[in-house]
Amino acid sequence: MRSHLLNDATAEQYRRSVTEGVERVASRLASTRQPFTGVTPDELAPLVAAVDLDTPLGDASAALDELEQVYLRDAVYFHHPRYLGHLNCPVVIPAVLGEAVLSAVNSSLDTWDQSAGGTLIERKLIDWTTGRIGLGPAADGVFTSGGTQSNLQALLLAREEAKTDDLAKLRIFSSECSHFSVQKSAKLLGLPPQSVISVPTDRDKRMQSVALAAELELCAAQGLTPMAIVATAGTTDFGSIDPLPEIAELAAQYGAWMHVDAAYGCGLLASPTRRHLLDGIERADSVTVDYHKSFFQPVSSSAVLVRDGATLRHATYHADYLNPRRTLEERIPNQVDKSLQTTRRFDALKLWMTLRVMGADGVGQLFDEVCDLAAAGWDVLAADPRYDVVVQPSLSTLVFRYIPTAVTSPAEIDRANLHARKALFASGEAVVAGTKVDGRQYLKFTLLNPETTVHDITAVLDLIAGHAEQYLGENLVHAS
Ligand SMILES: *Cc1c(COP(=O)(O)O)cnc(C)c1O
After folding, report:
1. Rounded to an integer, what distance in angstroms lies between the CA atom of residue 439 and that of residue 102?
2. Among 3.90.180.10, 3.90.1150.170, 3.30.428.10, 1.25.40.390, what is the CATH number of 361-479?
3. Does domain 107-357 have CATH number 3.90.1720.10?
4. Phi, psi angle pair for 438, to nearest 5°
5. pLDDT, tens digit, for every residue of 362-397?
6. What sign has the CA pseudo-torsion 281, 282, 283, 288?
7. Given the DSSP bridges, would you call strands 431-437 and 83-84 parallel, antiparallel or unpaired?
8. What is the 77 CA–ligand 1 centroid distance (Å)?
9. What contacts 400, CB < 8 A, 6 or more positions away?
10. What ligand 1 atom has the least distance to the C-alpha of 299?
11. Which residue, among 468, 446, 466, has the nearest Cα to 82 in the 3D structure?
12. What's the CA-to-centroid distance between 23 and ligand 1, angstroms?
């Protein structure tokens, strides 16, 4: 069994084994004709259930053969241009290379004595990101597992900086389109459910700053503490960007921590043409970025950035066996002092390789391309009488729904759209997402693949209309 340990004696086996895995994935990618096979949980579950984990296959080739059946054949492939579902991106090759390296070396970024150069690389990327945001000379941050964790950590800092023990008095303001991790964080931080105030959005799904001002005023009048305002720079559903300068103004006026959730919109930081859409982000106290959304990085790759690095001390605990207090005096860079995690992947390496090979403009151009595609897709939808489209995109999502020509009930239109989404997924020809707008069922394209074309968009719209029409036709037959 020692032959499976990666070391000097097994370097050749490592090379062969990983190369074989790469070959399998490469041929899978080359032969994949649609984003999904349409397999159902009922079809796939028996194959996984039949695997006896206590009877190993002994060699990698056999395990890869099995993996073809239980995973690779039916996986959902984000690299396919007709995957238009959630906020998942096709990944860039330099980042995948970084992933292979970081897994094999297996540094852990909690302490210097488990990572050395890895720590310095992560710190340099944090500085690069805070520089692009414009957070100033005292800024700092740390890589995290994702936007959810970044938001949680930012709100932990905000709670500690609010300097009150009366958690029931704290209030967090975020728009009705903000990510649910804001509410989840509030709960984890011991705040009551009413602590998160949902601020209405305008017709472009941007937080209404007038409504925010009114809520802040009410909060003050009630003797409550405005702990944080969470501005979203790229809402998950609409890609809408809250008015950051106005929010920054209000945060300063009411003494609230300003957090910008740029999990999705962070790609603009590298955009050669659209960086101005984030103007005002430089006034944030903390920022969430998900490189695994708009920097074309493999999951996971995210960071939380703060204006004042000293605030990260709220996450600092010392352990004699890991990061004793003396390491502070000795100025040993231990990233665990800034993180909610302890053992932590060297995800930063993926972004490092990406920037070293492609450069920031290279990544930003890819994000620009999908934003351009969304603008073109909006034109297509707006001109198509079969569809109702909401919100002209700032980033790369399109939210729309099929509207039949024949008069039907709103509930029936909802069902037709939901059916179309499910039928499309079952066919595997394309994957789209869904959401509700004002209580009604809508469909969503999240465009993060620069290989997707306007032709793909029109083709998928035809498929959706076909499924919706078929559903309505069949129901008409049933009804008569
Ligand atoms: C995706 C997303 C998150 C959560 O990020 P994860 O990486 O999925 O944990 C938070 N906020 C917004 C706006 C998002 O789009």
Report:
1. 45
2. 3.90.1150.170
3. no
4. 50, 40
5. 999 999 999 999 999 999 999 999 999 999 999 999
6. positive
7. parallel
8. 20
9. 381, 387, 388, 389, 390, 442, 443, 444, 445
10. 7
11. 446
12. 32
Residue type, 411: A
**Residue 400 pLDDT:** 98
Looking only at the bridges linking them, the beta strands covering 286-290 and 302-306 are antiparallel
pTM value > 0.90: yes
For residue 264, the ligand 1 atom closest to its alpha carbon is 15
In this structure, the residues whose C-beta lies within 6 A of any atom of ligand 1 are 87, 146-148, 151, 179, 181, 232, 236, 261, 263-264, 290, 302
Cα separation, 367 vs 139, in Å, equals 26
Expressed in angstroms and rounded, the spacing between residue 264 Cα and the centre of ligand 1 is 7
Q: What is the C-alpha separation between 398 and 444, in angstroms, rounded?
A: 6
Residue nearest to atom 15 of ligand 1 (CA): 236
The answer to whether the CB of 177 falls within 8 A of the CB of 211 is no
